[in-house]
Amino acid sequence: MVVTAAHCTDGQNTNTIKVVVGTVDLSSDDGQRFDIKRIIVHQEYVAPSKNYDIALLQLTEAVEFNENVRSIALPDEHVFYLPNTIGTTCGFGYINEYKQRTTQLRCVRVQLWGPEYCNGDNIPRVTKNMICAGLPSGQQGSCPGDSGGPFVIDNKLVGIVSWGFGCGAVHRPTVYTNVPRLRKWIDQYLTI
Ligand code: ARG
C-alpha cells in the first residue's frame, strides 16, 4: 500500500498510474515497477480546498524490501510534535522557482510550524487536516512536483506534500497533509 496525496490522483485511474520504488534517479531503470489494483481516495477530499488530501494506492503485487526499499511507520493518532521539530521531505519536483527540473531525488530538512502560526486565521485555507513546515530563512523546501511525497520525523510519516506558496520562500510554509490526524482512516485499509 502506497500513501500519496489525493490530488495526485485527480483525473487518474488504475491504468494511468504506475508506482516505482527503490530508485533515486528517474532517468535510470533501477527499482521495481508496479501496477495499481485500487485507488482509495479519502471520501471527504475536496479538490479545490485540498482538505483531506490523502489517497492510498494498492499495488497488484507485494513489494520486495531490500537495502533501497522499506516500509514506513505511521505516527500515533494523538502524537503532538513540538513546533520547530525538524523533519525531512524528499521529492523529484522542481529545484527552484524557475521550474527547473531534475531526475534525481532531492531531500531537505524543514521545520514544523506550530498550530499558533499554522491555522486558517493566519494562513488562508489551512485546516486541522494540514500541517505546515518550512525554514524561517526560506532557501529550501518543497516545490511543485513534490506532491504526494513524504515529510518524515523520527522515521515516521508525519506529512504528505500537499500545497504551498512559492518554493523555499521566506516566511511561507509548504502545507502537508496531517497524517496523525488521518491515521485511523489509513488503518481501516491495512490488513494486519
Ligand atoms: N501541489 C504541488 C504538487 O502537486 C506541490 C506542493 C508543494 N508546493 C509548494 N509550493 N511548496 O506537486
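qc> The mean pLDDT is 97.
qc> done
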